[in-house]
Structures are given as structure tokens and as C-alpha cells.
């Protein structure tokens, strides 16, 4: 196989075409088809999956490393800006997202009800994830996915292996859908469509939920709804189970926080360590495993919550406790607003 790869690798050097005008914004970098690591990747895709090497080379010849992608993925330069729950929460828990979310819920009520019935995930959780990800499909990203993933796969060493795997999955996904890889737009990290699935997640968890015999996460709200619900279900969502409750800390929280966000101790044992749930009726979850979540803001008291298995399932979508708590709080606000509107509606 090594000899075969070498032969393909050498032949790709002559197959590369000049980059197209669309890549002129990155004029300081070579076209990806001229990068040795990319030519080796193309050869591997040919040998492992039967891709046409010359065709892939022409596609990589039209893109190059995007400095905007590399800037976007860098952590905040100022340390205190890296972790502020109050600042993070304000981005997602606001009147605009609440109003748009209620409208989305009304418009997609049938698909949401069906997804909850099939997968056991509450409608408000599905709506909230889509709201946090893309404002209900309004902001799905303007980066070329092939270029973004290639930039991170070959020019971002800290996570090159991860993004190279996503690039591989993306090319497989595009071939399966019959679309050109150059046609996809998404986030700077290569996330796609209304629910912002990475390519590996789309291939593994996405579903055709509108019955048109294709998966379209960019254009079908129903497909997005079903796919989000299936993702959470396959990551351990427990129908009817708790998500999170606020907590008071009367003991030392450091060890429990350091244990991470994966629930590991029964709530009753956590209570014995001086962590008190502040929600009435939380004692019915005494046997449920939980984790102590710290929501930190500079110069503010830390906000503590107890996260259960369903909270952890949300973090599989985005491995941030800030993200999962924003989803949960937006979901609760949406549910409460919808219930209130139902109570106030005049009888017919």
C-alpha cells in the first residue's frame, strides 16, 4: 500500500491546477493542492475510499489556508475574557432568542412533537439547542466547509488530527449526498446547517425526518429537529429525567468540581458533602448520579448547579458547562413563556 500511495502522491504534483479566483483572499498561502501533506491526504482518500485523486486535487487547488479561520479558533488573548458565565449567558438568554424561539416552535410544532414522541427529548430542549447554535437557522455560517476544515487539518497543529478526521468524514458525506464539497457553507470549524453538526455527527446521527429521502440539515427544519433529538437520545438522554438544579454550597466544592461534569455520585452522597439542592422536590432524585457545576464570572460569586445525566448529554453536543446551562435555561424560558401564552389565550 505504501508503494501505491507513493505513486499516487508523485502523480498529484502534476495534476494540481492553479487556484481559482475565489481563493485570492488568501493570496499569501499556496493552494492546498500544492501542499505535500494535502497531496498525501488525497492519495490516502483514493486508496482507502476510491476517490478520484485528480478530481480531489482540482478541488483542493481552488482553496487555500484561511487566516480568518485560524484567528477564529484561537482562545481569547486576555485570560479574564476566557471564562465569564454572565457574559456568555447574555449572548443566548435574551428577548430576541426567546421571541424567535417561540415562533420556531409554533411553525415546527408537528415535527417537534414527533421527535419528542420518538426520542424522548423535550421539545423545548430541541428548540433551545437550535436557538443557541444558529438562532433557529438564521446564522449557519459563511465559511467554505472544505476550506475551513482543510485549514484546521493542515495548519492548526493543536487539533490537526481531529480536523483531519472531520475532513475525511466531510468528503465521504459530500460524496454520499451527491454534492460538491465546494458547495457547502458552515462555521469556521466546519459545522454545518441549522443544528451545526460536524461531518462525523451528520454521518452518524442525522436523520431524514421530513420523508423526502435525503438528509438536508441546511434547508430542512424537520431534518434538523429529528437529528438533534436523535443525537441526544444516542448520547444518553433519559426521558422524564432531571437536567439540572441550582445548588447551595455549605462545604468544600473544590473536589467535586474537579471531578468533572460527568455525573458520578448519587445526589444523596453529594448532599452529605455539604452541597444542597435548592429546588423543592429535589429529594426525589436522591439516587440519581449528579455532578457539581461551577459557573464562574470574574468579580462575581460563583453560581453552582447540580447537573444530572441529561445535562451531561447536552454537553456531548458542545463540551462546555456554559453551553449546556445556556441551552437548559433557554429551554426553561421557552417552556414557561409558551405555557403562559397558552393560559392567556382566549377560549374558543
Walk me through the structure.
The longest helix has 24 residues, at 321-344. The protein contains 16 helices and 7 strands. Among the domains are: 1-64, no CATH class; 86-138 and 216-234, Lysozyme, CATH 1.10.530; 244-342, Lysozyme (Orthogonal Bundle). It starts with a helix and ends with a helix. The model is unreliable at 5-24 (pLDDT under 50). The radius of gyration is 23 Å and the shape is globular. The protein has helices spanning 2-15, 36-49, 53-61, 67-73, 85-92, 95-107, 109-119, 123-134, 145-155, 160-177, 199-205, 221-234, 254-258, 267-272, 309-315, 321-344; strands at 143-144, 185-186, 244-249, 265-266, 275-277, 289-295, 303-307. The strands form 2 sheets. Strands 4-6-7-3-5 form a 5-stranded antiparallel β-sheet. Strands 1-2 form a two-stranded antiparallel ribbon. With 348 residues, it is α+β, with helices and mostly antiparallel strands. It is 52% helix and 8% strand.
Features:
348 residues, 5-stranded antiparallel beta sheet, 7 strands, two-stranded antiparallel ribbon, 8% strand, alpha+beta, 16 helices, Lysozyme
Mean pLDDT: 91
Unreliably modeled segments: 5-24
At the first level of CATH, the class of the domain at 244-342 is Mainly Alpha
Which sequence of strands runs across the widest sheet? 4-6-7-3-5
Q: Assign the CATH architecture of the domain at 244-342.
A: Orthogonal Bundle
Count the beta strands: 7
- What is the N-to-C order of secondary-structure elements (H for helix, E for strand)? HHHHHHHHEHHEHHEHEHEEEHH
Give the strand content: 5-15%
CA-based shape? globular
CATH fold group of the domain at 244-342: Lysozyme
Amino acid at each position: 500500500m505504501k508503494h501505491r500511495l507513493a505513486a499516487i502522491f508523485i502523480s498529484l504534483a502534476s495534476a494540481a491546477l492553479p487556484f481559482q479566483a475565489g481563493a485570492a483572499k488568501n493570496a499569501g498561502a499556496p493552494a492546498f493542492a500544492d501542499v505535500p501533506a494535502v497531496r498525501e491526504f488525497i492519495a490516502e482518500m483514493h486508496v482507502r475510499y476510491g476517490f478520484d485523486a485528480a478530481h480531489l486535487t482540482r478541488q483542493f487547488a481552488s482553496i487555500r489556508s484561511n487566516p480568518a479561520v485560524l484567528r477564529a479558533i484561537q482562545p481569547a488573548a486576555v485570560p479574564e475574557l476566557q471564562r465569564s458565565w454572565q457574559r456568555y449567558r447574555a449572548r443566548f438568554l435574551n428577548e430576541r432568542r426567546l421571541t424567535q424561539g417561540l415562533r420556531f416552535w409554533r411553525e415546527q410544532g408537528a415535527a417537534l412533537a414527533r421527535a419528542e414522541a420518538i426520542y424522548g427529548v423535550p421539545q423545548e430542549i430541541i428548540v433551545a439547542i437550535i436557538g443557541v447554535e444558529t438562532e433557529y437557522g438564521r446564522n449557519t455560517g459563511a465559511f467554505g466547509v472544505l476550506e475551513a476544515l482543510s485549514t484546521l487539518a493542515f495548519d492548526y497543529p493543536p487539533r490537526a488530527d481531529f480536523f483531519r478526521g472531520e475532513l475525511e468524514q466531510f468528503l465521504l458525506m459530500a460524496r454520499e449526498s451527491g454534492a460538491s464539497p465546494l458547495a457547502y457553507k458552515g462555521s469556521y470549524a466546519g459545522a454545518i446547517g441549522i443544528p451545526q453538526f460536524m461531518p462525523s455527527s451528520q454521518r452518524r446521527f442525522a436523520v431524514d425526518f421530513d420523508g423526502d429521502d435525503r438528509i438536508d440539515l441546511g434547508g430542512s427544519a424537520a431534518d434538523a429537529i429529528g437529528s438533534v433529538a436523535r443525537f441526544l437520545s444516542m448520547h444518553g438522554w433519559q426521558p422524564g429525567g432531571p437536567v439540572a438544579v441550582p445548588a447551595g454550597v455549605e462545604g468544600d466544592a473544590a473536589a467535586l468540581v474537579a471531578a468533572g461534569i460527568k455525573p458520578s455520585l448519587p445526589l444523596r452522597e453529594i448532599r452529605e458533602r455539604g452541597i444542597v439542592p435548592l429546588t423543592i422536590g429535589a429529594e426525589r432524585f436522591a439516587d440519581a448520579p449528579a455532578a457539581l457545576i461551577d459557573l464562574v464570572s470574574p468579580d462575581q460569586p460563583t453560581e453552582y448547579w447540580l447537573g444530572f445525566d441529561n445535562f451531561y448529554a447536552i454537553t456531548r453536543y458542545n463540551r462546555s458547562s456554559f453551553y449546556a446551562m445556556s441551552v437548559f435555561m433557554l429551554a426553561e424560558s421557552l417552556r414557561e413563556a409558551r405555557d403562559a401564552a397558552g393560559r392567556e389565550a382566549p377560549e374558543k
